[in-house]
Amino acid sequence: MSDKPESAPVPPVRLADYRPADYLIDAVRLDISLDPIATRVVSRLTLRPNPAGTAGAPLVLDGGDLRPLRALLDNEALDLAEVATPESLTIANPPARPFTLEVETLLDPSANTRLEGLYRSGSAFCTQCEAEGFRRITYYLDRPDVMSVFTVRLEADKAEAPVLLSNGNPVEQGDLPNDRHFAVWHDPFPKPSYLFALVGGDLGAIEDEYETMSGRKVKLAIHTQKGKEHRAHYAMESLIHAMRWDEFVYGREYDLDVFNIVAVPDFNMGAMENKGLNIFNDKYILAIQETATDGDYAGIEAVVAHEYFHNWTGNRITCRDWFQLCLKEGLTVYRDQEFSADQRSRAVGRIGNVRSLRAGQFPEDAGPLAHNVRPETYHEINNFYTATVYEKGAEIIRMLRALIGHEAYHAGMALYFQRFDGKAATVEDFISCFAESSGRDLAQFFLWYRQAGTPRLKARGTYDAKTKTFALDLSQETPPTPGQLEKKPLVMPIRLGLIGQDGKEIPLVPADPADAGEAQAGVFELAGKERRIVFRNIPSRPAPSLLRRFSTPAILDLDLSEDDLLLLMAHDTDPFNRWQAAQSFATRLMIRSTSLIRSSELPDFDPAFAEALGAAIEAGEADPAFAAQMATLPSESDIARDIGSDVDPDAIFLARRALREGIGRALGARLLAAYERLTSDAPFSPDASSAGRRALRNACLDLYAAGAPEDGAEIAMHQFQLGANMTDQAAALSTLCAHATRQRESALDSFFRSHAEEPLIVDKWFSLQAMIPEPETLARVKRLTHHHAFSLTNPNRARALISAFANGNPTGFNAADGAGYRFIAETALNLDAVNPQVAARLLAAFRSWRNLEAGRRQLAREALESVAAHAKLSPDLRDIVARALA
Ligand code: TRP
Ligand code: ZN
């Protein structure tokens, strides 16, 4: 909770106000004596005035709720009452030469439920310092442009914490009196405080060794709770693949003698890239076939790679200030997406990226929480670890590469690594490397960082049979976002092709020779408001295939006919757009049905679409992961987003259910036959092609059950009871949960009983129930908050039940009586007292409230206002509620 008075509005932090620090910290020595309730931290800082700062300025170190015990300046005791508060330590007149500051603080890690700073997870001690958690450990210049060399001595009870880890390389360890011991770690790479970490505990580990491209040997270890270490092998393989990939693709080599990963069950986010000591939410490390789904395996591969890639994009080169967060996050997400694309199927990977961008980032960009990829003001930086910074940030890098080409992209990256290694950089610094490597002026491109909102790209095609030409008229428009009413045209790389009526790709021959280069590359740039491109030698009216591979994160308005969509579904040479055509067709049908349902008419059904889908599923058995994507229709939230305003979630639910039911009925026998053909008794393997077969088989079952709930439930129950692996078991249970089948409750009970000792599976059990699309679910969720296995203090558990309801159950959260809104608002308030970061994220479920139909909009507003009315909110929750209502 806030320690400050609530009344006066706190001014935001502004990018425009950036000034270099007045002091630098060249070295830090930390002596930390771990104790569950009384940990002592002695910090010795070697400081000097920053030549780039203001001479003679006071030294103001950040603190967060700290209890100082003593402070010495150049070994002279300071009067604590005079210099320190829990929130800062101020030296009014520091020396104008190098000096030292020694401060001792006392921490209670057991009382730390916010999971920032030093806290306990299970019986272990661990830290989370990004973004501003280090100040909860000791007073510091807790900003990323202050980089220093850390030496850390940890001391602990030997039985309680036989494992003592920190950043860098191990230097020394030994025993101490009273059954205690110590370990010293030294990290030679200067780093900002947010990358500091320590871990102490009685942990298990698996180890491996990695030889870098230049032949250095690195000791790798993954530490987990005791008894779970055998579940870390997939994560270890992923790490080794990621290390090799970064050498091969980016020429980046690992730089320390050891690389440690620690998996903990209590963690606010996915994982953290602390130098040489990554700390993970254990759901992104632990996997065996009995406990993890294929989705979990893919998540582990991606997150392990993401954190590892930060070693260069984030750690060796860090951010000057938190406004530059996308410098490390957008780039690192792009890198992990490309890694996963190389490990698995590129097309399926891209579809997954785009599904997640549209589900998470587009609504953010279309609502009151919209912000630039590089924000210009913030109240609470923790609330800017968003889909916009991460995922739209990654899309910008992808576009940059599409615009300047592979070679200039890699030349620019090489320049960036060389020029900014060891420094804290800005997005301008980064982009300047590509301006240089490509010889292009990237000033207009930079608008992607400075302009919020998803642009609309309108495309209209005109075929002239006489001249055999096809003219494509492109135009763009970005709608206003909060505080940003005027938008300029963006630079968009538009990858496109034309598909003839015979299903063949038509060569692109532009009428204007100036367009020849772009036609050759298949990528056209739209930089102005409008552009017309004319193609020659077009034998008949083609179906344009636009934004192939989703080359620009825009909302495409393209008036394809249903025949065009069927043609593209079957024949587009770009698999992404084959999938997109199916999604667009399904969306069109569902939006039409939604309007019919709202005017009390019967929903539509189009047998041609079902037939095309059936053909895609059957043709796709050769690439089942892709076919599974074809078979997965847009979600209710996808449809709500496409409708955009006056949204009625109940009508959308009915429309979607009707379409799935119709398809299930139309394709029944064919879906069952595919399901049987995809059944295999081969031993489990988590590899992409085996996972693809399971995904398609489960998608077939789910569609089949949509048309034949009783029979589908029998098959699902059988698959559930076989329990061959968690993927098939969880998918069967999810299909059972989608219908009010008689098997559902007994399956849920048996699932809990068999897995009650497995926290990550119990999380799935909570989520599956929270997402049951029935009016009774809210009562069920409320009941489950009293279940002995439920807890608000473990973020995974809180998210599994509460966020799954808020974000994964549109009809439940948006219940017409407002009960879902009130429940989420109340729970966010309760959670705020425990963990403000997680509470703020939960409340962000309201991000699209303004798009609802009037009745729900009013109820959502009232729920948000009830939160805003609370006097004592954390800055985190205050910021979200204030922006949501603004
Ligand atoms: N930098 C982390 C990442 O890889 C994000 C992160 C982990 C984080 N824990 C956090 C951000 C806590 C804010 C608060 O992407
Ligand atoms: Zn990251």
Descriptive notes:
With 886 residues, the protein is an alpha+beta fold. Among the domains are: 13-265 and 272-278, tricorn interacting facor f3 domain (Immunoglobulin-like, Sandwich); 320-450, Orthogonal Bundle (Neutral Protease, domain 2); 456-550, Immunoglobulin-like (Sandwich), CATH 2.60.40; 776-886. It is 42% helix and 20% strand. It is built from 27 helices and 33 strands. The protein has an eight-stranded mixed beta sheet, with no helix packed on it. A five-stranded mixed beta sheet has the order 17-18-19-21-20, with helices on one face. Strands 10-11-16-13 form a four-stranded antiparallel beta sheet, with no helix packed on it. Helix 5 (346-365) packs across helix 6, helix 12 (607-619) packs antiparallel against helix 13 and helix 16 (688-707) packs antiparallel against helix 17. The longest helix has 34 residues, at 387-420. The site of tryptophan has 13 residues, from strand 20 and helix 3.
Short description:
The chain is α+β, with helices and mostly antiparallel strands and 886 residues long.
Entry keywords:
886 residues, alpha+beta, Immunoglobulin-like, Neutral Protease, domain 2, 8-stranded mixed sheet, 33 strands, globular, disordered N terminus, binds zinc ion
Approximately what portion of the residues adopt beta-strand conformation?
15-25%
Task: Give the CATH superfamily of the domain at 13-265 and 272-278.
Answer: tricorn interacting facor f3 domain
What is the CATH T-level topology of the domain at 13-265 and 272-278?
Answer: Immunoglobulin-like
Number of strands: 33
Give the neighbour order of strands across the main sheet. Answer: 6-5-9-3-2-12-15-14
Structural class: alpha+beta
The CATH C-level name of the domain at 13-265 and 272-278 is Mainly Beta
Query: Mean pLDDT score, rounded?
Result: 97
Please give the alpha-carbon distance between the first and last residues: 22 Å
Strand count, sense and barrel status of the largest sheet are: 8 strands, mixed
**Computed CA radius of gyration, to the nearest angstrom:** 28 Å
Q: How many distinct helices?
A: 27
Report helical residue fraction.
40-55%
Bound molecules: tryptophan, zinc ion
CATH architecture assignment name of the domain at 13-265 and 272-278 = Sandwich
